[in-house]
Amino acid sequence: MATIQRHPDKLRDRTVLLIAGTGGIGKGVASALLSRGSKVILTSRTQAKLDDTISQLLQLYPEVPQTNVSGYTLDLGSSSVEDNIKTVTEQLKRDGIEKIEHLVCLAGDPLPTSAIEDITLDSWLKASQVRTISCVLVVKHLLPFLRAAGPASSQCSPSITLTSGSVGDKPIPGGWTLLSMIAASLHGAARQLALDLKPIRVNTVSPGVVDTDLWSGMSEEQRNAFFEQTKKNMPTGRVGDVQDVAESYLWCMCDGNVTGEVVRTNSGVLIA
């Protein structure tokens, strides 16, 4: 008969790389990881945003060694994106980082809704590059760091977590065709990569509406009206909170028994 064991602290001293980790959800995940004793590496498109996020995190956790939070600039929307990713891998090696236990891809531009009549090849590629194409390239180049983390075990099971959205499951009227395609493709990517990269685990977190800067394309009045309507429609009666959503990412890292899954954290939108 199994005996009760002391629960392992699976994230303490683990190195976690958050790609595009200076956005709303990224900051929430970084904060949660620091509270668990992880070593957090962030990337951001600009040095200013990177510096600001690191400063905020260190102020929140003054007890954390400053070396536990670091970062690099990485522009995922550039035509030279693959070279940019290679530069980050070189910087990691230069800084003595040989292994990464967990890789989290959080990249996403402000939501580019577009009527089907307005979609062009260029707009399609632009919408896809940051969210899907660059995501796959990041996995490609960071894979050696994950493999260097060692064999999978209940104590430390290397993982990759992608970020999708609930529109991949439930359509939204009004110009969401591209985003629906992108979100659904990331659901499929997690399942395929989980097989191709085993025993490294791969999952996708699929948030619903979360109060972050992702909605900055709307005016404040539009955003407030959208959030209020969302609250009325949701079983939870509220818009998603970053701290709640961050728990889904930590679960994907900690549960060595989960891979190839889409983890939905969406205020109950699929039953609304």
Automatic annotation (TrEMBL):
UniProt key word Transmembrane? no
Q: Of which family is this protein a member?
A: Belongs to the short-chain dehydrogenases/reductases (SDR) family.
Organism from which the protein derives: Lithohypha guttulata
Know the name of this protein? Uncharacterized protein
Coiled coil region boundaries: none
Check the record and name the Pfam families matching this protein: SDR
Q: Does the UniProt entry include the keyword Oxidoreductase?
A: yes
User: Which PANTHER family does UniProt cross-reference here?
Assistant: DIHYDROANTICAPSIN 7-DEHYDROGENASE
User: Which keywords accompany this UniProt record?
Assistant: NADP, Oxidoreductase
Taxonomic path: Eukaryota, Fungi, Dikarya, Ascomycota, Pezizomycotina
Lineage, top-rank taxon, reads Eukaryota
